[in-house]
Amino acid sequence: MSGKPILHYCNARGRMESIRWLLAAAGVEFEECFLETKDDLVNLKTNGSLLFQQVPMVEIDGMKMVQTKAILNYIAGKYNLYGKDLKERALIDMYVEGMVDLNEAIMTSAYQPANKREEELAKALDKATNRYFPVFEKVLKDHGRDFLVGDKLSRADVQLLETILIAEEQKPDILAKFPLLQGFKARTSNIPNIKKFLQPGSPRKPPTLEKDIPKLMAIFH
Questions:
Q1: Residue whose C-alpha is closest to residue 134's, from 96, 181, 72, 169
Q2: Strand pairing of 31-34 and 6-9?
Q3: CA separation for the pair 206, 219 (Å, rounded)
Q4: CATH dotted code for 6-79+199-212
Q5: Pick the CATH number of 86-190 from 1.20.1050.10, 3.40.1190.20, 3.40.50.2000, 3.40.640.10
Q6: Which of 103, 7, 109 is nearest to 55 (CA)?
Q7: 6: buried, middle or exposed (CB in 10 Å: 19+, 13-18, 0-12)?
Q8: What tens digit of pLDDT does each residue of 24-74 get?
Q9: Whole-prediction pTM value?
Q10: Ranges for the GST N-terminal domain (predicted)?
C-alpha cells in the first residue's frame, strides 16, 4: 500500500471529478483504479467493497468510503478546506449543494437522447446564467473577500471553479456579465495546487465525448 488515496471509478468525470479536484487542491497525490467493464464493477460489489453497491469509492485512511458527499466532506475536513466553525461549514454546504445541482444538469445533458441533448444543455446553461451564477456573484460582492466563505480557500471555492470551467466548455462567454466571477476564476486558477491540476497530463478528466457514452453506460447498466 502506498498510503495514497485510491479512487475507484471509470476513466471519466462523473461524480468522481469533484473528488479529484478537491484532493488536487489539497495537494494530495492519489491513485486511480479504473472500471473498464461491467465485470469490474460486479467484482467490487461481490467482494464487499461497496457499501451501497455503487461508486464512486475511495480507499482512504483505512476506509472504503462511498457516497460522493460523504467523501468530499471527509477530504475537506481532513485538509482544512471546510471553514473554521459550524456557521462557515453551513455556508459552504449550502453553496456546494447549489453547484452540484448545476454541475449535474450540465453533465447529464450529454447522456440525454440525441433529440433532447441540445435542449437539455440549453436549459442547464440558462440556469447557470440566470439562477446560479448571479447568486455567487452576489456572494462575492457581499462578502468582499477573495473567497466565498471566510478568508481562505474552501471546498466551495474549488467546486465553484470546477463548475465555471465546465460551463465555459459549453459556452465560453458565460461569465460575460459576471466580473467578480471572472476575477474569482483568475485568482483560484493560479493557486499553485490548482494551477498544477489544470495543466496537461494531470489526473483531471476531459469532457465526455459522445462516442464514449455507450462504453460508460455499459459499465453501469
A1: 181
A2: parallel
A3: 19
A4: 3.40.30.10
A5: 1.20.1050.10
A6: 7
A7: middle
A8: 999 999 999 999 999 999 999 999 999 999 999 999 999 999 999 999 999
A9: 0.95
A10: 3-83
